[in-house]
## 1
Amino acid sequence: MENKLAVQLLSSIAQEARLDIFRLLVQAGSEGLAAGAIGETLKIPLSTLSFHLKGLSVAGLINARQVSRFIYYSANYEAMNGLLVYLTENCCAGQQACCPDLSCNATDNEIKSCKEIKS
Amino acid sequence: MENKLAVQLLSSIAQEARLDIFRLLVQAGSEGLAAGAIGETLKIPLSTLSFHLKGLSVAGLINARQVSRFIYYSANYEAMNGLLVYLTENCCAGQQACCPDLSCNATDNEIKSCKEIKS
DNA sequence: ACAATATTTCTATATTTATGGAAATATAGA
DNA sequence: TCTATATTTCCATAAATATAGAAATATTGT
């Protein structure tokens, strides 16, 4: 990831309504939610919501797919993970004692290991 | 963490210069860097740099400490970690197959376990 | 007290972003 | 084709943010 892309992603969630939208979608899972459902849940006027959904989409932090009349929006987990890694890269001069070690979650196997420990 | 605080933190790094500054400090470790050293490394005019350092400080993402004539800025790792957790909380409807499981890094012991696996 | 260094504040200007009502577009069912 | 539903685009206005030169402030050594 490079600076400009990261700024795009960060800008897209650096706003109260958009952060709420994004977190809702992160929690909703890959199926996502229709625009109307998002607006209803978060009580956001539709034109405003549409403006923000577009911002998140253009940045690349959420995906949209049309299902008949509905448009389902979902979190782009890859983009999110890339951003988190970018932010914490080479943390603490390589000692990495002070930040979550995201690289331990970077591959599927490592994620599995991490979860096994937890359970 | 709550929405408004997270937006504050995100806004503070949702800008090219400030993201560079923050990442430089994340990598520098807890000792931090003097303002002048940051400006020199990143080629940012001092008044602009000062404006951005203030933004990051007010948001709470970096700390400042004065050492004689120098002011050392350092990353606030707690704030950063809190933000990362907030973003990924309850990811994927609790299945957490799609995002780094930061909660496995949430405590020191868990971080240790995670690292042991990796090595 | 003076000079040198480190950093911030002041200032004006330029740019970007957010808001929500009203109208437009798109899809689907009767 | 008519109607209802879902979502977006248009628009004007309001507000927040970024830039960097010049001047001001703070600290230290002589």
## 2
Amino acid sequence: MPKRVDHTERRTEIAEALLRVAARRGLHAVGMRDVAAEAGVSLRLVQYYFETKEKLLLFGLQQLADRFGERVAARVRAAGDHPGPRAMIEAMLTAALPTDEDSRTFHLVYTSYAVLSVTDEVLAAQPFIANPDAAEGTLVALFRQAEESGLIRPGLDAHLEAVGLLAMSAGLGTSILVGQRSPESAAAVLKHQLDRIFQ
Amino acid sequence: MPKRVDHTERRTEIAEALLRVAARRGLHAVGMRDVAAEAGVSLRLVQYYFETKEKLLLFGLQQLADRFGERVAARVRAAGDHPGPRAMIEAMLTAALPTDEDSRTFHLVYTSYAVLSVTDEVLAAQPFIANPDAAEGTLVALFRQAEESGLIRPGLDAHLEAVGLLAMSAGLGTSILVGQRSPESAAAVLKHQLDRIFQ
DNA sequence: ACCAACGTGGTACGTTCGTATCACAAAGAG
DNA sequence: CTCTTTGTGATACGAACGTACCACGTTGGT
């Protein structure tokens, strides 16, 4: 049976299983055995490809961030061939809202990781600063571009707007997740905010 | 030794211990024995006053929400004798930001509960809808009041503004918690947003 | 003064967790 | 054709967890 196997691919499959279980039962309740069962492999294999649970969690977080990046990129591409800054910004912000099962998973698991990273030092590492910072940078650039095109009233602080919008989007996402708000009303709030900034 | 004891008071003490441990090591890592040690009582007593861990968690969440309500109320009172709507709104929103150790605890543990409530049905019960909804209602009322006093430009949607600001505050709080943003810059973002709404 | 209920301690039980160990089959290298 | 490496299974181990059980001193009611 033991053909030579691609480690990276196998690790990805197992990490995907981890994310599925985490989405279903919560990240705190995920055990090595659950991941193994979900991936359809033995416990030993999970141990083999990720020596320790911590490394599995780390890889899973990385994977989650990567997948989300692709999701946002796809959304932006779907916004059209030459989308204006407003359309791109709206696509980015609404992509982060938990509207379908995939984005629900992302939001829930990512938030779980964020909570873990506060008390677990080794998990606090890269992605919780790098990833949102990148989104912030992109948003700032889009605002600057919109400003030069005269689409928004001049003199507004691109950085403050970008940070505020991202925080608002994240907060709305959480309230959707816990069932307090509908995705539609959250999108309306974001749209309202953008309406005030643009034109 | 067994004097007749006030159950409510004892339960409160134990719940406070739970919150302290949760703040230090994360809610997911809290065990009954940890709570007992932190409260300075035996494991048996924790079992005695809360028969099960689930009930302890539920009570702890209630306690956390109560304490936060008091905190916000104190902040609003501290804003002055006859604070304008703007000052009250700003007090409410900044009270939710994790600036000191107490509010850090609140934000972290509350977020942990929120994450748990998504997958744990019994925990999803009351406070995650009731509490934010109350804040939303208060904010809406303040906006209406400000509108009637002519402090803000007419025709703005009080509900959309309230929801957006609360979400922004929550999102900023999380980014402070994970170390991405400083409390000062988060407060500046909120202030900027309020500046645009008022007058 | 007795008796039932209350408050408290100690400890044991069954389960689950992450990790380690042992064994072995298949495949590439020489 | 051997031999070392790689992949995989089964299982064992020690710790920690939530909970249950048993014993005992104290208190208030009658």
